[in-house]
Amino acid sequence: MPHIIDPEFIKARFPTLSEMTYLNNASTGIPPQRCGEAMQSYLDDRMHAVGDFEETLATFTRITENLAKLLGGSKEQYGFVGSTSMGLNSIGHAIQYPRGSNIVICDIEFPSNYIPWQNVSRLLGVELRVMKTTQGAAPAKEFEKLVDENTRVVAVSHVQFGTGYRSDLAELSRIAHQNGAILVADIIQSAGWADIDLEKWDVDFAAAQAAKWLLGPIGAGFVYVSKRIMDQLSPRFMGWWGVKDIANFSYFEREPLPDARMFQIGSPAMVAYVGFLASLDVLLEMDGKKREGAAMENADHLRSRLDELGVPCYDFGDSHNSAIVSCEPEGVEALQKELAKNDIHCSVRNKRLRVSPHLYNTTQEIDRLVEHLR
Fold this sequence. Notes:
three-stranded antiparallel β-sheet; globular; 11 helices; alpha/beta; Aspartate Aminotransferase, domain 2; Aspartate Aminotransferase, domain 1; single chain
């Protein structure tokens, strides 16, 4: 099969995968060995007082360069936050809401992409419009029915955590922009496996963190900001990592940086970002089409096998399917426990079995899972 990654490549970089069938990347991914080695090396250096601030800044520059290669745009469009939730809160409070403004979301979002908007609605008196979804899908045409000239934000996950529905971000940005709104995307369930170009799709703001498909540590979060809205933003919180002249520690009136780093408040969790950089280096050893092709080949194979067995699963078609497969076998809770006993890792979400293969999985592993569904 043309998209499956060379097994020797996987074996060398992810040796622990030989011990299990890991199909739970929508929860957390398996970091490459290089990630753990980089984190240990950083801690060893800390214990021996090795390293300086310039080296730290250089590491963060490399990460933003890698993120731009992976997700589109330029390095100045990326900044660091502790989590996806922190990133979404940051943008939620950095824009202005004229009287009568509204925000549009849908009802199948993970809490990180609806709690911040509920809070903005309560604190700032902004109307929150919630699109009611059916059959796990969140089509752009249904969002469009709720968007008007008073909409300030359209917020959506690129891939829905529970159902696997993949949104058309380019179409949603068109809908938002023609009404003067901004498009905010939670990309935590797509960044790493999907071939993404945030700049090409005209996304205004995106947030994610490293621990899922990006195969990095928990705590290495980031945001993306489009050049179109950069000058319109006023961060509600500021800190010394987000202002001009960062190395000047004397007292004077500080100004936010003119790029995405304006959302950086305090010192990032350096050990997590060192590991994240190593994981990004591994992901960038193959291009986006290869990464997406490998993950989707596994997911499509699973959908096909489920169809053979008569096990219901969400199938949104080629344009909206993702590497997350949500299916409905009988006795799902007991099944998940049986799978875990056999070192097959999946999860249960919304009373359905959620299977999320990555680029490092194989169709043979999918078949091993399917044997337990018979």
